[in-house]
Amino acid sequence: MGKELAITIGGIILLSISMVTSAQYQETPVCINPESQYAPAIYNDKIVWMDSRNGWYNYDIYMFDLSTGIETQITTDTHNQSYPAIYGNKIVYVDDRNGNDDIYIYDLSTGTETSICTDPARQLSPAIFSDRIVWLDSRNAADSFDHPDVYMYDLSTDTETPICIHLHPIYCPWLGGNGFINIFEDRIVWADWRNGNEDIYMYNLSTDTELQITTDTSYQSFPDIYEDIIVWRGGRNKPSDFIEHEYDDIYMYDLSTGVETPVSIDPETSEKTPVIYGDKIVWNKGGGIYIYDLSTGGETPVYTGPGLCFPGIDIQHSIYAWLGYLYG
Q1: Integer Rg of the chain from CA
Q2: Residue 94: alpha-carbon gap to chain centroid
Q3: Which residue of 186, 220, 239, 275 has the fewest CB atoms within a 10 Å radius of its CB?
């Protein structure tokens, strides 16, 4: 089976792929608006992203429905709405209409927008699973740009709960973004500085227990989780003369066995922003997109150029979306 290749300038790229004996896929541009599109997330047949077409300081959330081929503007407020996440009919995002970064939600089934957290401090990097929304929150920090804590809001009970408030900071650059915290069912994962380096931690809501996942003295960040598998990027093999977060590799941890396994170690390039769904792990490797199949143990390049695919990858079922730039 052949492949059709398309990439856009500053646009969201969609890839549909099925694994047989080799990678077979059809790649489709989802948004080719000349303004900036960033931070895609996907759930089933819906892709969401932040979009600057209405003004550089007026990012809005847009959605593309794969089943209908229709693009919809989700937010219309004249301030920034950014870094969306989606689960079912619910889209959560960061919103600065109140003069600081807050968490809002839009319900596709009712067409209503609701504030989740409007604390005067900054709330960043929302993620959602079912009725649970998690984010990073700086209300207990020395200032609004300091390292945040983990908070959760349960839509079924209208209750906000602090998950991790620690004297040492949780890793999150002040610009925020996606991928610093994630949730699957009753498990929340994030990167944490309490040991003097970034480690991956997990909190189990059912057992009310926190678990340290990584113990290596280098840095581990950008975790994602699906069922018992946690993936992240780590710098333990980084050459000593390179700066932090250059030449990272991809690792995974199986909660059912307690075993950590390297997914991809490449001494020639940096590997970033892994995401997982089912038995597939997808990540950015040297600017391209790669996939690892847990059932076969095989790594396959999905897109390797021309251009550069920035972190902003998400995965759901057999559909993969990422942010792509083409130079030249």
Answers
A1: 19
A2: 14
A3: 239
H or E element, residue 30: strand 23-31
8 Å CB contact between 113 and 106: yes
CB 218 within 8 A of CB 234: yes
Q: Rounded CA gap, 84 and 13, in Å? A: 16
In a domain, 210, yes or no: yes
- For strands 159-164 and 181-184, give the pairing: unpaired
Residue 296: partners with Cβ closer than 8 Å, 6 or more residues away: 19
Contact predicate 117/161, CB 8 Å: no
Domain CATH code at residue 142: 2.120.10.60
pTM over 0.70: yes
**Residues 273-319 pLDDT 10s:** 899 999 999 888 887 888 999 999 999 888 776 665 654 556 666 67
Buried b (16+ CB within 10 A) or exposed e, 63-85: bbebeeeeeeebbeeebbbbbbb
Is 326 part of any domain? no
Asked if 246 contacts 226 with a C-beta cutoff of 8 angstroms, the reply is no
- The SS3 call for residue 24 is strand
Looking at the 3D structure of the chain, how many domains does it have?
A: 1
Torsion angle, alpha carbons of 103, 108, 114, 116, to 10: -40
Note the helical H segments in the chain.
none
Q: CA-to-CA distance for 210 and 215, rounded, in angstroms?
A: 14
